[in-house]
Write a structure and sequence with these properties.
Blueprint (H helix, E strand, L loop, with lengths): L2 H28 L3 H13 L5 H17 L4 H18 L3 H25 L1 H4 L3 H19 L1 H8 L5 E5 L3 E4 L8 E7 L4 E8 L2 E6 L5 E4 L3 E3 L1
Antiparallel strand pairs: 1-4, 1-7, 2-3, 4-5, 5-6
Helix pairs in contact: 1-2, 2-3, 5-7
Length: 222
């Protein structure tokens, strides 16, 4: 099995998918469907599309959406500030996580080695106890160094990010019989983090100003 060929084929496939979503995003934006355009741009970004021109395109779409919905500015700002940080961590290349884990490991080993050399209690332990003590410390140091990878794999990669595709109403429960939430109206193009799905609706987990339930048909996941 040629791993280099497999990796190359995967890279080509990913590039095709990125360009596909970029093209759709550009076309929807030109046609005036800003929310759907933003959704496809965010899908391309989630797949690894990172360059200055692309960032400018996303910013242009967001500015267009805001210009059409000036009253949504406070809520939009909260949505962007909360989700952008999590999104950036989610799309961060695995190489960065691995490098971070290695750096944490090296730093911890240096600190542990220095601390043990200065410890009189450690010096007085028997060789077997020293070995056991050192093994336990190394084990927990290794686990701690893997925390960036664990967080990304077990938490960030499983989050449901979405773009609101059309103006919708947030309700306090998963049905129209429930009252509207305090900030009930969410404009198309707003980004949200979703929780569980029930009765044809998603629970909005973040931002907190839009906490409640919205129809599945009104959102696009990326």
């Amino acid at each position: 099995m040629d791993l280099r060929k497999i990796n190359y084929d995967m890279k080509i496939s990913q590039d095709i998918e990125i360009n596909f979503h970029k093209t759709l995003g550009e076309n929807y934006f030109k046609d005036g469907n800003n929310a759907l355009g933003l959704l496809h741009f965010e899908k391309a970004k989630a797949l690894g599309a990172i360059d200055q021109k692309f960032d400018t395109q996303i910013l242009e779409v967001k500015q267009k959406i805001l210009s059409l919905n000036a009253t949504a500015m406070p809520f939009w700002s909260e949505s962007e500030s909360y989700l952008s940080y999590i999104e950036d961590m989610r799309v961060m290349p695995k190489d960065v996580y691995i490098t971070t884990a290695l750096l944490i490991s090296i730093c911890l080993l240096i600190i542990i080695n220095f601390t043990l050399k200065k410890s009189t209690a450690f010096k007085n332990l028997s060789i077997k106890k020293k070995q056991l003590y050192f093994a336990v410390i190394l084990f927990f140091a290794f686990l701690f160094s893997l925390s960036p990878l664990i967080i990304n794999h077990c938490y960030l990669s499983k989050q449901k990010f979405a773009v609101i595709l059309k103006d919708t109403i947030v309700r306090e429960g998963p049905s129209n019989i429930f009252e509207e939430s305090e900030n009930a109206r969410v404009v198309a193009g707003t980004k949200v983090l979703l929780g569980k799905k029930y009765n044809g609706r998603y629970k909005v987990f973040a931002p907190k100003c839009f906490e409640g339930w919205i129809p599945v048909k009104d959102v696009g996941l990326y």
